[in-house]
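Team,

Forwarding the record for the chain on the shared tracking sheet. I've put the sequence and predicted structure together so nobody has to dig through attachments.
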Amino acid sequence: REGKRGGGTAVVFKTGLPVNVCKISRAFETFEFVAVWLKAENTKIILVTLYRTGNLTSIFSNELDLLLSDISTKADDFIIAGDLNIHFEKNSRTIKQSL
């Protein structure tokens, strides 16, 4: 995050857990993320931590769709966690149009 203030993503895990970084070949403009592989018995899970800043636009929806399409082909299950900075409690036409 050189030259930026605040935000960012991280995954913290206990030493010894089978966790590996999951390489995603795309770069996104509207959010930052970290993706890791988790192994649970015979299941491959991808955990994604995501941080979104700025105004909510349709570009975010498109980029999130690309990320979800990419990881859904690589794993049996996935978990998305983080700060999307989307305030669903506000009845905003912008939110409905963007998502």
